[in-house]
Amino acid sequence: MKVLVVGGGGREHALCWALAASPLLGKLWCAPGNAGIAEVAECVAIPAEDITTLVAFATANGVDLVVAGPEAPLTLGLADACAGAGLRCFGPSAAAAQLEGSKTFTKQVADAAKAPTAAWARFTEAAAARDYVRAQGAPIVVKADGLAAGKGVVVAATVAEAEAALAEIMEDRVHGAAGASVVIEECLLGQEVSFFALCDGETALPLGAAQDHKRVGDGDTGPNTGGMGAYSPPPVFTAALQDQVMAEIIRPCLAEMAARGTPFRGVLFAGLMLTETGPKLIEFNVRFGDPECQALMVRLKSDLLPALLAACDGTLHSLTLAWEKLHSLVVVMAANGYPGSYVKGSEIRGLEQAAQIPGVQVFHAGTARREDGALVATGGRVLGITATGTTLREARDAAYAAVAAIDWPGGFCRQDIAHRAL
């Protein structure tokens, strides 16, 4: 089979790595890809959001499956354009991708499906939003309604913090049009878990869970990021909890999406809070998490390609997935200064030595090759040092041994990934 993966980050490297191992695969492309992806797929210089060119390339090259990595192409209608050209696409339609594109839409779906979620209200005027915050008190959560690259959520410890967030989002428009309206939610307490389910419009199949670390600094300090590390499976997320989430959140919301005429196909990523009264939905994303995808792919024993095809073809009911009895952990190495302004172009050495450590897989997120062959950093999050082990501690030790083998003065990482579990 011929497969085109869309995107160029660590998540896409993990997907390409897993797909490259499939005996069904004949040819693998990735657009635009990165230096690490180039080792397992042919990279094509097409931006992930250039839907027209992506579909033209897939059509001209007889691609059997397009796999969407990030959310932006999906909200722009990649799956719809593929369907129009007679191409299979793993990922939801633009209408179904509103589950990530609009916080309001997700809350409405959850309420209609009677899925447990935080109490909420939506505002289009900053003054009314401020009045609501003052009446509710803190802690309280302020979210830009639209897509904000994972950075549009503020958990405000005080009313003043919430008001400052409203000013930034609604008046300063730090997230652009995504801040035209906001959703304000009660602050749920507990442990946060990322849960993934493969969906074909009718059937949902559990794809495992992970816990990630959003804050940039050790001890969960500093500003939020796209994710500084993750581990899977989370000890706190039991088999009974997974069954409860499937029964109370995933399946009812999938049925509600179908009832609305916007069936969801692809991977549904539920951000959950495990509260004292049970799991509650924080948000939906319509694609794999990054770095959670890396932690899941190294544990997946089954062939990924037939699973993605089954989601496209409506045959998930006949599919079962096998998992390695291993723990996995990802340490993200980021460029100095991230998540603020960071330097690009610093050279990275030592990846060969890191990859030789048993159980270690190095995924690239923001890398490129210079003309002289040197590997350089091109993004904020640059590498995902991933390791497996028979215990979580073993996986952590292997990952940090690999980090120590890498020679990159221009980068940093958190030293405490999985501290909650260990």
Describe this structure as you would to a colleague.
The protein has 422 residues and is an alpha+beta fold. Helices cover 30% and strands 28% of the residues. It is globular and about 60 Å long. The N and C termini lie far apart (42 Å). The chain has helices at 10-20, 51-60, 71-75, 78-84, 98-101, 103-112, 126-136, 159-171, 239-259, 292-297, 304-313, 351-355, 392-405, and strands at 2-7, 27-32, 42-43, 65-68, 89-90, 120-123, 140-144, 153-156, 182-186, 191-200, 204-212, 215-217, 221-224, 229-232, 265-275, 278-285, 327-335, 347-348, 360-364, 367-369, 375-377, 381-389, 411-412. A hairpin with a 2-residue loop joins strand 15 (265-275) and strand 16 (278-285). The mean pLDDT is 96. The chain contains 13 helices and 23 strands. Helix 7 (126-136) runs antiparallel to helix 8. The chain folds into four domains: 2-91, Rossmann fold; 125-180, ATP-grasp fold, A domain (Dna Ligase, domain 1); 191-318, D-amino Acid Aminotransferase, Chain A, domain 1 (2-Layer Sandwich); 327-412, Glycinamide Ribonucleotide Synthetase, Chain A, domain 4 (Alpha-Beta Complex), CATH 3.90.600. The strands form five sheets. Strands 10, 11, 14, 15, 16, 17, 19, 22 and 23 form a nine-stranded antiparallel β-sheet that branches.
Features of the shown structure:
4 domains, D-amino Acid Aminotransferase, Chain A, domain 1, alpha+beta, Dna Ligase, domain 1, 30% helix, 422 residues, 5-stranded parallel beta sheet
Unreliable stretches (pLDDT < 50, length at least 5) are none
Report the count of strand segments: 23
Q: Report the average pLDDT across residues.
A: 96
What integer value in Å does the Rg equal? 21 Å
CATH third-level topology of the largest domain? D-amino Acid Aminotransferase, Chain A, domain 1
The major sheet is characterized as: 9 strands, antiparallel
- Number of alpha- plus pi-helical segments: 13
**Terminal CA distance:** 42 Å
CATH architecture of the largest domain: 2-Layer Sandwich
**Beta fraction:** 25-35%
Helix content: 25-40%
**CATH superfamily placement of the largest domain:** ATP-grasp fold, B domain
Give the C-level CATH assignment of the largest domain: Alpha Beta
Number of domains: 4
Task: Label the structural class.
Answer: alpha+beta
* Molecular shape: globular
